[in-house]
Amino acid sequence: MITVTDLAVLGRSLAVDTDHLLTRLQDGAALLIHLAPPADYPYESHKVEERIVCIQGKLNLETEAGTCHALLAGQMALIPPGLRHRFAADSDGVILTLFGGA
């Protein structure tokens, strides 16, 4: 199951000038990706957790189970290891993808 977090809402719920640890990454990678329609993205899965942050635009994530999650700028999706997923063909934006687990 994909979990979506609104980072702006989370951030504003914190006390001012305090840190909130989202995750620790070991042996991971951070990728900046530009998505533009139309595109045909294949399903994929990873051995580690994947966090996708929508920086600008709109991203639609699909799973093989048929669920779709829409992310807007400022939202983050957490994808567990092994879950087959893909970007929907109409995704249009800039995303930050973080691979790796605690």
Automatic annotation (TrEMBL):
Q: Which InterPro entries match?
A: Cupin_2 (IPR013096), RmlC-like_jellyroll (IPR014710), RmlC_Cupin_sf (IPR011051)
Domain Cupin type-2, residue spans:
32-93
Where does this protein have coiled-coil stretches?
none
What CDD domains does the annotation carry?
cupin_RmlC-like
Task: Name the residues that span the membrane.
Answer: none
Q: Name one Pfam family in it.
A: Cupin_2
The name of this protein is Cupin domain-containing protein
Question: Which source organism?
Answer: Chitinimonas viridis
